[in-house]
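ARCHIVE ENTRY
Sequence with per-residue tokens
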Amino acid sequence: MKKYLVFMFAILLSSCLGGGGTQIVKDEVDSFTGHKIKRTTFEKASNHYAFAPKMFNFIRFSKINENYVLDLKTTLVSGSVFAINKDDFLMIKLNSGEIIKLQAYTV
């Protein structure tokens, strides 16, 4: 399963970097926690407007100390909020039938 996550991360990263718009916007050490944080800009992750015409998906990548984080943001035009609460899971089902479980990350 780890190789699938690395593969997905590489695909998402290449799709964001392919447009040349992704930039590192934060590269610092948090003065309160001491965590070293690197973070990119949010980039558009999907163009599936026919499937969900009022939903916009964005991603960004972060590195907090030695942990790599994929930040997902979904905006609904209706004003609804989509969020994953602390200790909840986002489950992705691959075409092969394998299910990948991602857990909300808090520092």
The mean pLDDT is 75. The two ends are 24 Å apart (CA to CA).
